[in-house]
Amino acid sequence: MRACLLLCAFAMMVAAASAQETVAIDGGKVAVPAASNGVRVFKGLPYAAPPVGERRWRAPAPVEVWQGVRSTSEYAPNCLQPKLYRDIDPFAPAMSEDCLYLNVWTATKAGEARPVIVWIHGGGYRAGYGSEPRHDGTVLAKKGVVVVTINYRLGVFGFMAHPDLTAESEHHASGNYAMMDMIAALQWVKRNIAAFGGDPGRVTIAGESAGSDAVSRLMATPRAAGLFHRAIGESGAAFGTMADDTLAQAEAKGLAFTKAMDGKGIAALRRRSSAEILALVLAPDGNWDFGPTIDGWMMPASAADIFAAGKQNDVPLLTGWNADEGILFAGVLGTDTLATALQKRFGAAAPAAAAFYPPPEAEARARFAGDMVMNVPTWSWAVAQTRTGHAPVFLYRFDQVPPIPADWFGKDFMGKYVGAFHSGEIPYAFGHPGIMPGWKPSAADDRVADIMSSAWAAFAANGDPNGSGLPHWTAYQPAGQRMIFGPKTGEARDTDAPRLQFWREHP
């Protein structure tokens, strides 16, 4: 009798396993996770083969086929990176060079085709990952969006160029592997997102900081044509006052890195462990900063030149920045006073520029740094699209001061007001400021988050952030109306435009 009961129980388990709901995607079948509050989260889906060994510093290869049913219950490892920022913990859950995975949040029902947001994380192209808690797509999924967050190769693994790599490339270019990863993820979305209830004809690319910069580059590159239909950029764009490296400059940097390792070339470097390579990047005497390159193929020219020629991927654009971006970037000025920084940047026009940065000194330096690093590039991107694009632009400024603990940026950080700081808007755009550890959002924070995430969802659906119950948002023209998210959410004239235009008029 006991043996019969055990056999029957085993048979029931086998039957349940065989009846497990699955989704077929590139590479094989994945398990459908249980829903929580109506939302299913598919974690750790591969969108390319592991970029390891001989695949290091190559374009992403197709997904490797697997047998059986792949679990979707755990996030995949984060791409290799140092711990650079207090609010990005790369060690949770883990790190690996095998990191080209994405995650999907969906609340769709059978037969639906909902708009899709593909989120590209920030972190200076050196840090960050798609499964950071603040990127949780649950709220947006409940508002009718299928949310996809991705990992992409970072730093030396994502951007190093080298003459040997250029020679082996059929496109005679190297570097920009991270951008190739992003495009591979978008191609995966185009082929597979319908299986998750997403509409491959309504894909929005979105990102913050380096992720926003990447969105502007994806709008610029012909390699991403047809893979997305709207764009959202939060604080950042490839329209800065400093030019990207040329391919020759990037190759020289790669040669120097190879020499510093062992001087034996790319073949030998591909045999070195990822830990050894990362250790060299982090060496005290190193100064390795790898980023996007004007390589002639992925980026045939600068983003500014491509937009000026009207050759961008012409899609609706929603973009903006935070009121106090410069609080976290004042360090880029080193020990320079504001007067010195103005003189270095504007020369003879420095006295006129000073009128835009009234005292006190600390606050003025922060405003200057915020303009230099984030505001001018982002505003320039918006203006470029208004001038040569046919699709509309919607501009915003985020003024809400997040409810952070006093030591959020460390006990020794400035020790004072940080305001609407860089990256502070992310949990609001995702609709959940309370997800951040130690944050204690008020009703006002929740209200801003609800409006902002609803506008993002409306934009993903229609290419227009207007919708029922939302404040009216007029398409932008330079110095025209923009949206303010904050204590007084609503439209207001772009009072930053004269200051930012001054920067563009005095390159």
UniProtKB/TrEMBL annotation:
Pfam families: COesterase (PF00135). SUPFAM superfamilies: alpha/beta-Hydrolases. PROSITE patterns: CARBOXYLESTERASE_B_1 (PS00122). Residues 1-19 form the signal peptide. InterPro entries: AB_hydrolase_fold, CarbesteraseB, Carboxylesterase_B_AS, Type-B_Carboxylest/Lipase. Its EC number is 3.1.1.-. Keywords: Hydrolase, Signal. The keyword Acyltransferase does not apply. Residues 25-334, 365-503 form the Carboxylesterase type B domain. The keyword Signal applies. It is an enzyme of class 3 (hydrolase). Belongs to the type-B carboxylesterase/lipase family. This is Carboxylic ester hydrolase. It comes from Rhizomicrobium electricum. The lineage of its organism: Bacteria, Pseudomonadati, Pseudomonadota, Alphaproteobacteria, Micropepsales.
